[in-house]
């Protein structure tokens, strides 16, 4: 709409200049014409039109309108009063005033114009009247110009309709993609649509909670910048001057995303420094924000449903293992005890070693089953990974002299469950090795989550092992299983150990949307 009004204003300015030149040409030859008055009027009009080329506050537009109508009124009184062709000049002035001023301001100017005209028509004599031939020629020129201006306005209207159609088409494609592809990347699709609709070089959808766009470091940079500025408390569209990731300042439109009082994020896109956002674009941005929030809510509902189903599966699996496999192992252990007691003494001596091995293996299986059941239940009840790890470390080191130091940095919201499970199981295996074999005094566990990766480090100050025994020790301590588990989630696994210098295990796992190299 702003582009259309600008085109109309330019057309009206052009029409005013044609009217001015035509009037000057014909009235210069009229009897008793005032060359001095027309010269002064021409100088004022030139300066006036130059001023119109610049963006002005609304108060100054009001003053310019008064000046323009005052000049028109003077020449109307001099050239035929209400039948003067200069009335057309006054009409064009009112037309562009309607485009830049409020209705009550335009009405005030009209009232002042009518009051002044009713007073001046008795005082100012009619001095400049052209011949009938000049009037006929002037009307012909004015008719031609009016048709030309109407054609120009129609052309501007068609251009505006074309822009509106292009924006509507891109918005339709976005809606179609949202409906047909529920699993799409909402951030990327929204940013692409905004860049096309608003002809912007940069656009970012920064979500506060449902971080499905994590992995794009540019988006994360602007998200952190907005949070530092308190954007989660904004309620209206604002235009901000922001530093981008290269340190360059640029002008951004910031549209807060909220639904039912809950802040979801902020949609930002770059614009030229002097450009403003008109009412139609604000309405369009509000519509886009509602679509994004509704789609985000659908994503959250689906995630919560999947999470609930996953937790239900873990709970059922733990219960089935407790009621089935664990009970059977307990039954086998009891049967083994009865078998040992029922054997004759001469037979016990020959099979004692074999029975001990079987009994130890049953106990080991029973312990593994109980441990797995505990893991399933703990992980289900803990909402955050660091809470589950803290419970794990506390349980595994309880009753030992091992000093545990656990640190967690960064956020891991909405991370996929199999990634969280791989991290948890790796720390569990590494801690078990430190407790059973390392003879360590201090165990350090850290989980650092950045925008591109998760770094998990487990270090002890135990006895370590030599490099020649590395392959055998890794098989013994379950390192192969840890390495395979980390590889399944796209990560890399490293282990370093020296005699009497402890062991360090490091796993680096890429975040969603980031590919690991190296």
Automatic annotation (TrEMBL):
Gene3D superfamilies: 1.20.5.1930, Histidine kinase-like ATPase, C-terminal domain. The keyword Cell wall biogenesis/degradation does not apply. It catalyses: ATP + protein L-histidine = ADP + protein N-phospho-L-histidine. The chain crosses the membrane at residues 12-28, 34-54, 61-77, 136-158. Residues 418-513 form the Histidine kinase/HSP90-like ATPase domain. Its EC number is 2.7.13.3. One of its GO terms (cellular component) is membrane. Keywords: Kinase, Membrane, Transferase, Transmembrane, Transmembrane helix, Two-component regulatory system. It is an enzyme of class 2 (transferase). It holds the Pfam family HisKA_3. GO terms for molecular function: phosphorelay sensor kinase activity; protein dimerization activity. The keyword Transport does not apply. CDD domains: HATPase_UhpB-NarQ-NarX-like. It comes from the Bacteria. This is histidine kinase. It comes from Brevibacillus centrosporus.
